[in-house]
Amino acid sequence: MIELFKNPNYDFIGKRKWAYIVSIAITLISLVSLVAKGGLRYDIDFTGGTLIQVRFEQPPQVAKIRTSLGTIQLGESIIQQFGDPREYIIRLPLVAVGSEEISRRVQGALGADASLGKFEIRRVEFVGPQVGRELQLQAVYLVLGGLIWIAIYLAFRFDLRGGVAAVIAVLHDVIVCLGALSLFNREFSLPVLAALLTIIGYSVNDTIVAYDRLRENRGKSMPKGRTFAQQMNDAVNQTLSRTILTSLTTFFSAAVLLFLGGKTLEDFAFVLFVGVITGTYSTTYVAAALVVDWTSHVEGRLRRGKKAVAKA
Amino acid sequence: MPRHLRLRIGLVLAVIAVSVWYLYPLKSSINLGLDLQGGIHLMLGVEADRHVASQTDRAAEDLKSALERKGIAVKRIAREGNTAIKVELASPQSWNDSRTVVAEFSSFDRRDDDQAAGTFRLVMNDRRVSQLRDDAIRQGLETIRNRIDQFGVSEPTITRQGADQILIQLPGIQDAARAKALIGKTALLEFKLLDERTPIDQALAGHLPETSEVLFGREVDKQTKAERKIPYVVQRRALLTGAELTRAEVSADPNSMGNWQVAIEFTSTGTRIFGEVTEQNVGRRLAIILDGTVYSAPRINERIPGGRAVITGQFTVDDARDLAIVLRAGALPAPVVILEERTVGPSLGSDSIRQGLIAIAGSAIVVFVFMLVYYRLSGLVADIALGLNLLILFACMAAIRATLTLPGLAGIALTIGMAVDTNILIFERIREEMRVGKTPRAAIEAGFRRALRTIVDTHLTVMGTAVILLSFGTSSVKGFGVSLFIGLGASLFTAYFFTRLLFDLLYMGRRKVDAISI
Fold first, then answer.
1. Do A79 and A65 share a structural domain?
2. pLDDT tens, residue by residue, B291-302
3. Among positive and negative, which fits the CA dihedral B46, B52, B53, B55?
4. Which of B40, B164, B363 has the highest number of chain A CBs within 10 A, making it the mutation to test binding with A?
């Protein structure tokens, strides 16, 4: 029998002070990156605009693409290589020109420079201002819906302390994912939002598993002589192998998607990849740690209160 | 013997049989999204208010002639906004007579009466406005469907969305630009007389009578490809429109080598009007105008009785063919604008399928091997369950006619990693029960029972978010939500029916079990 952990008894909870430092540092780095870069880079789904994916027969010179697009008066275009060296993505801002006219002009401009060679327009995405607004609204619905769902679930399955701690852990994961997007200059799109919601759901479930174990243990027989922190540490250790194993398989899938899934879904896979890691981490080091500190704070106050009563 | 063993084997076999039945033949059972098979997705906005405005214009014209028939002189009559007509009578004396005429325009309400000045406004009532708006969208949809049918696209989707939008999905289109031009063209064909009394330079400077306007023709130089705009002064009033057209055919232009033309034929009413117009205006020039662009303006040499005309321009055969299609299908009652477009070329579509399948296969292989190595025989059980899981997932997608998109493929790849969680949770629990000294059978029993709650938790949280994704999302997000939801749902089934069944068959039937390969 292969076992990842044989009767694990790591002192996770005891090292929580270090974990707090790490969590706060990562959160701060994420926030600083987001602020410094002026927020996330939004995909045309949200901003509106045009995206054209072109494949050239020969790897082209970006400068030449830029010059030829400069002549068609469609605003500042962003030109990026997309995976293959022959494949490029051209992004154009929203302009007061119809979508069929935009693709016609881009095709004309690229065709006019013979040195660019033959090319094929493989994808055109045009999002007008109206649809952009609708999609923004949809994103808000998705986020609200996700949060309400998690809140309902937590209300059923947790007490107040566990619930608040789980919410903080989820927020931590969301900030880290967004920060990673920002640090690695990736775009925030609708699929990325979908990945984020998946991570929110996923991150909560590990937390539920560990917390359930804690309550199961405490319900069986109050273990005498073990502090709450130790009990939590036991629960984390007892659920450690399953937490790691289930995360590991999901992590494999996310990694395969990120490295083999193609360029189109890279940002989406990236969020899943980061989210699975931080979601697993936050179960122990954010949610469980917070519950321990909260509980010992409350118990400490109760004890002090009792002492005060006894004195009197 | 475990309970209901035969029944459970039967159930699992039935599920497999039904799944295979839904999936056969694979090519037609799975509905590929446009991002995978290539094609155009267009969201059109119908400018329905323009239809309302043109109907108000028409009512204003009718009102003017109705008043004049009654001998009531009109100083000015003009549309205000989209729905109102402002009327100024020449003299307030005819006020009472005008009221009886106006009463016949029942879709308008009379407002702002000023008897002393002889002015009033007519405002179209809300019911009529919404009816006209609805007409514009419905006729627009019909017309576009007609054009697409004639263009020849297999399995197009053309549906109304919301109040004033039309969603068009054309799978497998090669020439996106041409299809878009065909769909988006208003195709309003008009015949208008040239105003040859107003000199062009004067008209361009803005000095022209209220009844005339300047329109342009386009001419492309064959050598330099440079486009030249030629101004024409035409009378505003259209003598005849494309509504009176019965046929439109492509033929070679006899006067210009390599160019094509569209020959049109009028209805009987159209033929009569065309005959009268040409008879009364011999010697003048008649402009043939499509969507505000002058295509030609030939001089009328004599009365044309047969109701036939040709539209020439520098058309290629495709241009001419598309023009004939839009003329036959008729004009859109109101212009449309493209609100959203997503076009994927066929080569990109097949690349995406390949990449999606690679991701699924890669994910499956890694997880399969991992489970096998880590849990041995039980891992193999989990792997078989995972295979069944994928089979059920695809079958469900086929059964509900869900569309498989690229994010959907990604969702499947991810689901493989998440679905196997059920088995991990069960196996870990069984190991734990064995560690505290339970017999293998008791451990299996307890493992399945105790893992249930955790499994429900882990599935519900993610399936809940999947439901939100598939209920609020657009097609790309929806596709991901659908495969995530079905995949996790299927994994609940496979864990509790299939994995359990295999365990029962492996360990529960024999007399004595010493160890579990887990």
1. yes
2. 888 988 888 888
3. positive
4. B363
pLDDT at residue B514 above 80?
A: no
CATH number at B49-128: 3.30.1360
Contact list, A275 vs chain B (CB under 8 Å): none
Q: Let me know how long chain A is.
A: 312
Considering only residues B27 and B404, tell me which one the structure prediction assigns the higher pLDDT.
B404
Under 8 Å between Cβ of B342 and B38: no
pLDDT in tens, B37-83: 999 999 999 999 999 998 898 888 888 888 888 888 888 888 888 99
Residue B477: CB partners within 8 Å, gap ≥ 6? A142, A190, A191, A193, A194, B407, B469, B470
If asked whether residues A142 and A277 sit together in one domain, one would say yes
Better-scored residue on pLDDT, A226 or A85: A85
| CATH number, domain B5-37+345-508, options 1.20.1640.10, 1.10.10.10, 3.30.2310.20, 3.30.200.20 | 1.20.1640.10
Structure token pair of residue A1: 């029998």
- Total count of domains within chain A: 2
A175 and A249 assigned to the same domain: yes
3-class SS of residue B336: strand
Are B469 and A194 a contacting pair at CB < 8 A?
A: yes
For the domain that residue A254 is a member of, what is the CATH number?
1.20.1640.10
Which tokens in the block code for residue A75?
């605003």
**In the Cβ-directed half-sphere of A113, how many Cα atoms lie within 13 Å?**
22
Q: Which residues of B touch A250 (CB under 8 A)?
A: 414, 417-418, 421
Q: What residue of A is the nearest CA neighbor of B350? A: A122
Task: Give the whole-angstrom CA distance, residue B459 versus residue B337.
Answer: 43
For residue B172, give the H/E element and its range. none
Domain finish residue from A102, A127, A152: A127
- Residue B168's φ and ψ, nearest 5 degrees, are -125, 130
Buried b (16+ CB within 10 A) or exposed e, A275-307: bbbbbbbbbbbbbbbbbbbbbeeeeeeeeeeee
Q: Distance between CA B316 and CA B296 in Å, rounded?
A: 16
- Mean pLDDT, chain B, integer: 88
How do the domains of chain B map onto residue ranges?
A: 5-37+345-508, 49-128, 185-343
Q: In terms of DSSP H, where are the helices of A51-159?
A: 62-70, 99-112, 129-157
From chain B, pick out residues whose CB is under 8 angstroms from the CB of A202.
418, 461-462
Q: Would you state the pLDDT for residue A312?
A: 59
ipTM: 0.89
Would strands B403-404 and B293-296 be described as parallel, antiparallel, or unpaired?
Answer: unpaired
Q: Do B5-37+345-508 and B49-128 share a fold?
A: no
Q: Do both A302 and A223 map to the same domain? A: yes
CATH class of B185-343: alpha beta
Which long-range contacts link B72-79 to residues 24+ away (Cβ below 8 Å)? B72/B97, B72/B98, B72/B101, B75/B118, B79/B53
For residue B416, what are its two tokens? 């493989």
Co-location of A191 and A292 in the same domain:
yes
User: Are residues A248 and B457, on separate chains, in Cβ contact within 8 Å?
Assistant: no
Is A82 a domain residue?
yes
- Picking from A146, A133, A137, the residue whose alpha carbon sits closest to that of residue A174 is A146
CB-based contacts of B121, cutoff 8 Å, min separation 6? B80, B84, B85, B86, B87, B110, B111, B112
SS3 label, residue B285:
strand
Please indicate, yes or no, whether residues A62 and A179 belong to a single structural domain of this protein.
no
Q: Is residue A113 part of a domain?
A: yes
Record: contact B477-A190, CB cut-off 8 A: yes
Measured CA to CA in angstroms, residue B442 lies from B257, B432, B435 at distances of 91, 12, 12
pLDDT at B2: 65
The C-alpha atoms of residue A17 and residue A24 are separated, in whole angstroms, by: 11
Residue B512 has pLDDT above 80, yes or no: no
| Domain with A226 in it | 13-42+132-311
